[in-house]
Amino acid sequence: MASTDYDLVIVGLGSGGMVAAEFATRLGIKVAAVEAARVGGDCLWTGCVPSKALLASAKAAHTIRHADRYGIEVAPPRIDSARVFARVHAIQQRLASTSDSPRRFRELGVDLRLGRARIADPHEVIVGDTPISTRFILLCTGSRPALADVPGLAEAGYLTSETVFEIERAPRSLVVLGGGPIAIELGQAFARLGTATTVLQRGPRILMRDEPELVARLAGTLREEGVDLRTGVTADRVVAQSGAKIVHVGDERLSVEAILIAAGRVPNVEGLGLAQVGVRCGALGIEVDTRMRTAVASIYAAGDVAGRFAFTHSAGYEAARAVRNMFFPGSSGGEYEVPWCTFTDPELAHVGLTEGQARERWGDEVAVWRHELADSDRARTDGSEVGAIHVVTRKGTIVGGHVLAANAGEIVNELALALHRGLDLADLGRVIHVYPTYSIGIQQLGADAAYERAERYKFLVRSRAAR
């Protein structure tokens, strides 16, 4: 016999599931949530939280090394990586006991069940041997690291984003396989903490989905800091020898203490019984429409498992969108833009189209407006002049924004809002920005766009000089 009926059963209480659970309880919806491992999901335990904590420590070490830029005598930092990782773990535990605590969700009214879930039919979830009946099901099971198919790698041993934050100290040397955000963030972090770091990227460049010009600048910074960044290469095989891991790259052998696989993500769809109930899956994950609904009307999916964007912020957005559409049908549809940021130093963030993508669609209707940080008063005072703000427009309307700068993830949000609202770049020139900030560069670009437009009508101006 099924247990008490619910309005909504959420499978997975990570970034998406937590947002959905809290939102649903505020609407008075009767909610059960099923979690197979730990509340908080990848973001808390293997993603955003530990990686950003590690990056903060790495940045502190880097700042100490280059204190002479600020008129301060340089002394090499004494890095105790065991204390660095202890700090990372302490931050995780603090969040796990507060905002991401199972107790908090139970106090909100969520019936939290621990165990693995299987979908028995469109209105029934089985946890262990217990069936739970429900009006709607929301799948937020996330993803896991993809594993590289390199001969000898499994035998030699490796780290992934799920295990790297379990180590107690930084390795002395490291090879990173991959060139996406996780690979590049952690590659820079470990290098700054004193690890001899090599990044091997199979593709022609790192961060393939970002603006190539800004990616090239970031790559230059990484190399200047000592990251051995290689593109267009592959690891042919790995051999464990005398306590080291020997990575064969062509004719070269790289002897390192550790290997980190950061070569993408795989959606967690196994064991859910999706095919039996008619939920379709593709290579990227569960197939959903813009309302986050699957092929089965009562089953929705959000976050990594839905195969669109593997980000905490998009998972939360999609989960809330799914709940709205369940209980307020048709209230939240249509395509949506997701900004994202690679949290290197400087950060690289973007929303919308790159210049190349825009020109492929609209050709000469596209213009790119560039503001160099070398011309930013704030960047000069901070000693952070590497970077730029690029805004891509079509007939004046913003269709893409790209930022390489300190706090680029904060700056890009303004461009995301402008893109969402269909604003012209000139509209941003009319908004007063605080000086001195990095984001005032957006106002300056907007003013440039407005001035260019005004020049077309200068013949209307009555000037004494023309008399």
List the helices and strands and how they pair.
Layout: E1 3-11, H1 15-26, E2 31-35, H2 41-45, H3 48-65, H4 81-96, H5 102-108, E3 111-114, E4 117-121, E5 124-127, E6 130-139, E7 143-145, H6 153-156, E8 173-177, H7 181-192, E9 196-201, H8 212-224, E10 228-231, E11 237-241, E12 244-249, E13 252-256, E14 258-261, E15 265-267, H9 274-277, E16 281-282, E17 285-286, E18 299-301, H10 312-327, E19 340-342, E20 347-352, H11 355-362, E21 366-372, H12 377-382, E22 388-394, E23 397-405, H13 408-421, H14 425-429, H15 440-455
Parallel strand pairs: 1-2, 1-6, 2-3, 6-18, 8-9, 8-14, 9-10
Antiparallel strand pairs: 4-5, 5-6, 7-15, 11-12, 12-13, 16-17, 19-20, 20-23, 21-22, 22-23
Detailed description of the structure:
The structure is a single chain. The chain is α/β, with parallel strands linked by helices and 467 residues long. It folds into 3 domains: 3-40 and 100-144 and 266-327, FAD/NAD(P)-binding domain, CATH 3.50.50; 153-263, FAD/NAD(P)-binding domain (3-Layer(bba) Sandwich); 346-455, FAD/NAD-linked reductase, C-terminal dimerisation domain (Enolase-like, domain 1). The chain is built from 15 helices and 23 strands. The longest helix has 18 residues, at 48-65. It is globular, with a radius of gyration of 25 Å.
